Amino acid sequence: MDDINVLHHRCLLNLRRRIRDIGDGRPAQERYMRLQKDGDMLSYQGNSEEVGCYVAGHPLSKGNCYFEVTIVDTGVRGTIAVGLVPKFYRLDHQPGWLPYSVAYHADNGKLYNGNPVGQQFGPKCARGDRIGCGIHSENTEADFSTVFFTKNGKEVGSVDVPVLAEGLFPAVGMHSMGEEVKVDLQAEWFLEEDESMMMVDSHEDDWGRLYDVRVSGTDYPRNRHPGWSRGSVAYHADDGKIFHGSGVGDAFGPRCIKGDIMGCGIMFPRDYILDGEGDVDDWDRPEVRPGPAGVQNVLYLNEEEEEEEEEEEDGEEAEQGQEGRKVMVFFTRNGKLMGRREMAVPPGGLYPTVGMLSSGEKVKVDLHPLSG
User: Fold this and answer.
1) Tell me, what's the pLDDT at 25?
2) DSSP of 149-169
3) Would you say 174 and 52 are in contact if contact means Cβ atoms under 8 Å apart?
4) What is the percent of the chain with per-residue pLDDT over 70, rounded to a whole number?
């Protein structure tokens, strides 16, 4: 009985000590293992078989919502990870491998979000590159935060991650001899406002900035989603379907939600001539398999049918005249290829475009994204 009382007393003392440490406002101490810290420099000191990890003493907050890590040396393998972890994260694991942690890994450009299996996210990083990580405080909900990553000051992407009560702490992981980084926990980052990156929502004033889209030599109808009218193609986030000149979509890929990155590009054939500028890189012409017919869009079906009847004859003639100007349009989701669709290039070319149909929708448009 006395032993039980002693054990109970010790447990109470430990609990009171932890409550006191948290309650008096004293910052948590930074923690690291298999790393050497000299000022703001961190270097790997393990045997390349075990992970070394550093966790900062302060979590990110609205007043200090961003930090950066400069790669001084990639060492043997360049297995350097930068991200956010819980307060008592295990120091023998890379950031991003365990639940409630997330990290951008330099060696493969992948994002690890509470899982030892990463997903393609951004470009690889080498010596001299700066990897940044921060939280969008305006997008913080009760149990989730939007975490974003940068490379050399330009945003790579973002993801929503669950957050424990103590918050998210800056972390750096290393896993091979010779790796060395410089950590700046007071770094600042501002979104560069230029013509290649813009925020667009469903309000008329902002949406007006993208009204210069042209298809088939005429202004694209402003009341039509991309893909609905002839000469256009689009991957739709709400149902994962592809719409190719029709108000009826085909099954194509997964649905997309907040935080997903949707990409679109063109693969040009070797003999494609662009405004007399000559040949471009070759591309492999894969077999195109149209998907099954999807659910019709009742709101615009009648309008589409009438339009198709009027355009059918002219459209067929135009396409017949463009057989030699076909390209392969491809779509991605979070860096992974979803599929391709071959189409004829209309007069005037194909322009990037985004469509929205409900209040509150908001996206970020990057016309010059980073690529690996």
Assistant:
1) 44
2) EEETTEEEEEEEEE--TT--E
3) yes
4) 68
